[in-house]
Amino acid sequence: MGQPNSRIGFVGVGRMGANMARRLKDQGETIVAVFDRNHAAAIDLASELACEAAETPIRIAELATIIFTVVSDDAAMRQIFSATDTESLLRQAKDRLFVNCATLSPAVHIEVDTLVTQHGGRSLEACMASSITQARQGTLYLMCGGRPDVFESAKPLLGKLSAHLRYIGSAGEAAKVKALVNMVMNCNTAALAEGLGLGAALDLDLTMLREVFAQTGAASRVLDTDGEDMQNRAHDCYFSAAHAAKDSGKLEPSFRPRRRSAATIAGFPLRWAPPRSARNSRLRLNHMTIMDARIASNNSATMVVTQNAGPWPCSFLNTTRSTTWPMTRAMKTTNVLTTP
């Protein structure tokens, strides 16, 4: 891949997809067409990249040999790969490579891989654990799932988008890892916000507190990337609570037949209360609070997370029912600092 005759198209050119297309253009790749349900966005990007703004997904597959899909959810993915829709990518799947980058449920990645193979194409999931800036800079963390030979053929091209490129396993496996990454990241974000909020309520110097967090067991990647913004109350929304809610439920069907352990899944699944405004909701300080955490008698763990209406979070974990040492110890510690 990445040879001079490769023609690349994008289905889904929101902030991530558009920046990936810009990056590949900068790296000398040929972008032939882009498609988005928001056709105005596709027109703007097509003008910038000097390519076609396609009006249907099938047009992308007609023009391109490699198609990146960066859509919003499972329903959107099933629509563009519909076996019955005459405008579906499957209508022109033969001899095409589809690189699917959206955060989807593992089952949908498996469905798409099967359908594409049946129609004579190849499919690779390339799940992203990165930000918009990294998409533009070509420093994404990509976790890939699919056939090993497809991954090897796509590596040169994906290397132009990523600083870390990792093969996870067969179709659906990378999506499982991505869902767990997002689950832990979301929990870390909410917990860090609570810690800084409680620190402020106790009149602690937050710069000092962040430094101590970074040098102790409170350290996290979220602290590195978002801690200063939280302290400064810079709440630009790059990853909304609505998206976090979507991502956090991706693995729940996979766990239903099994006995779930609180120690191994750390509070999964997350159940999110509807935010007052999906457009304005964000995973930033002051906006999310863990309201309740319980360990049930069957040893399964759940958390109920909701938006915090006040200027600062007022509690970390509120519970009286706990049967495992780690959660009990955490509640004992944090309840000492809980404000009424």
Tertiary shape: elongated
CATH class of the largest domain reads Alpha Beta
Order of helices and strands: EHEHEHEHEHEHEHEHHHHHHEEEH
Counting H and I runs of at least 4 residues, what is the number of helices? 14
Structural class by sheet pairing and helices: alpha/beta
Low-confidence stretches: 257-340
Task: Tell me the CATH superfamily of the largest domain.
Answer: NAD(P)-binding Rossmann-like Domain
Total beta-strand segments? 11
* Strand order, sheet with most strands: 3-2-1-4-5-6-7-8
Taking all Cα atoms into account, the compactness measure Rg is: 22 Å
Number of domains: 2
Task: State the end-to-end CA separation.
Answer: 59 Å
CATH architecture call of the largest domain? 3-Layer(aba) Sandwich
What percent of residues adopt helix (DSSP H or I)?
40-55%
Largest sheet: 8 strands, mixed
Report the portion of residues in β strands.
15-25%
Q: What is the CATH topology assignment of the largest domain?
A: Rossmann fold
Please state the average pLDDT score: 78
Characterization of this structure:
By secondary structure, the protein is α/β, with parallel strands linked by helices. The chain is 42% helix and 18% strand. It folds into two domains: 7-170, 3-Layer(aba) Sandwich (Rossmann fold); 176-335, Orthogonal Bundle (N-(1-d-carboxylethyl)-l-norvaline Dehydrogenase, domain 2). The chain has helices spanning 15-26, 39-49, 57-63, 74-80, 106-118, 132-137, 148-158, 173-201, 206-214, 221-231, 241-248, 252-255, 262-265, 325-335; strands at residues 7-11, 30-35, 52-53, 66-69, 97-100, 122-128, 140-146, 162-169, 270-272, 288-295, 301-307. Helix 8 packs across helix 10 (221-231) and helix 9 (206-214) packs antiparallel against helix 10 (221-231). The termini are far apart. 44% of the residues are buried.
